[in-house]
Amino acid sequence: MPTASPPSAILTDIEGTTTSIAFVYDVLFPYAAARLERTCAQAHPGPELREALEQLRAEHGRETAADPPPPFGDGAPYARWLMERDRKSTGLKLLQGLIWDEGYARGEIRGHIYPDVPPALKAWREQGRRLRIFSSGSVHAQKLLFGHTDHGDLTPLFEGFHDTRTGPKQDPAAYTAIAAAFGLPPGEILFLSDVTPELDAASRAGYRTGLLVRPGNRPAEPGIHPVYGSFGEIG
Q1: pLDDT confidence of 19, banded at 50, 70, 90?
Q2: CATH number, domain containing residue 69
Q3: What pLDDT is attached to residue 137?
Q4: Which of 121, 44, 55 is nearest to 92 (CA)?
Q5: Which of 15, 70, 177, 186 could pair with 206 in a Cys bridge, judged by C-beta atoms 3.0 to 4.6 Å apart?
Q6: Backbone region of residue 153 per phi and psi (left: phi > 0; alpha: psi in -120 to 50; beta: other values)
Q7: Neighbour-count burial for 135-172, b at 16+ CB within 10 Å, e otherwise
Q8: How far apart are CA 90 and CA 109, in angstroms?
Q9: Which of 105, 138, 158 is the C-terminal boundary of a domain?
Q10: Residue 154's pLDDT band (boundaries 50, 70, 90)?
Q11: pTM of the full structure
Q12: Do 40 and 126 sit in the same domain of this protein?
């Protein structure tokens, strides 16, 4: 049986794939939570903060009565309510990214990247493979994380970053849109994630897939997806 050719491009998730879940929940989320009120209460918010708050207000207006949110206020009460529920809110992710920006700039946060990831990314680029990120965290937050790591600035390795504004991560249409951004047939793209439903969605869009099983990751049934313990195992 002939061996399948290597993928032309690789799309990767972040949390649980390139980066430990503990870093997100034990470092990033608490840092943002401690600064929600101060950030949302700014008397003269800049355009990026206004955009995040406008997005949050629109999301607040669409909430159902089944689990009623608190009054919107300046945005902080609703943002905290979303964080407590670990909701994949676009507005919340935009707001968190702005808060983390300050932490990275001050050197209070360093982006965690598994040590097997940088050499694999660099090797793939040297082989001519194209790389993009797809994460529920905002594009701004993605660039901050990869731009402030103990391995240096890794952002030049990627040609593009995608967040939930591209589409939900469990919707095949999002992966179709990213394939169009690559300008490649879906079958030439490998998607890496630690979440099986995301891989299922990518597979339905025609992608190749790989399930990352890292220490501390949530249990996941691989189903049809090949399983890898590190990026170094991926050919």
Answers
A1: very high
A2: 1.10.720
A3: 87
A4: 55
A5: 186
A6: beta
A7: bbbbbbbbbbbbebbeeeebbeebeebbbbebbebebb
A8: 22
A9: 105
A10: very high
A11: 0.87
A12: no
Tokens standing for 140? 């701004």
- Range of 78's domain? 26-105
Is the pLDDT at 178 greater than 70? The verdict is yes
Q: Are residues 13 and 66 in the same domain?
A: no
Instruction: Kindly state whether residues 58 and 120 are assigned to the same domain.
Output: no
List CB contacts of 14: < 8 A, sequence separation 6 or more.
133, 135, 137, 142, 145
Q: What angle do CA 1, 175, 85 make, to 5 degrees?
A: 125
59: tokens are: 């999301």
Q: What is the mean pLDDT of residues 93-116?
A: 94
Q: Which amino acid is at 175?
A: Y
For residues 31, 34, 39, 42, the Cα torsion angle rounded to the nearest 10 degrees is: -150
Shared-domain flag, residues 148 and 180:
yes
- The answer as to whether 2 is a domain residue is no
Read off the pLDDT of each residue in 192-215 and give the average, rounded to a whole number: 97
Task: State the pLDDT at residue 1.
Answer: 36
Query: What is residue 230's predicted lDDT score, i.e. its pLDDT?
Result: 97
Across 2-12, average pLDDT = 85
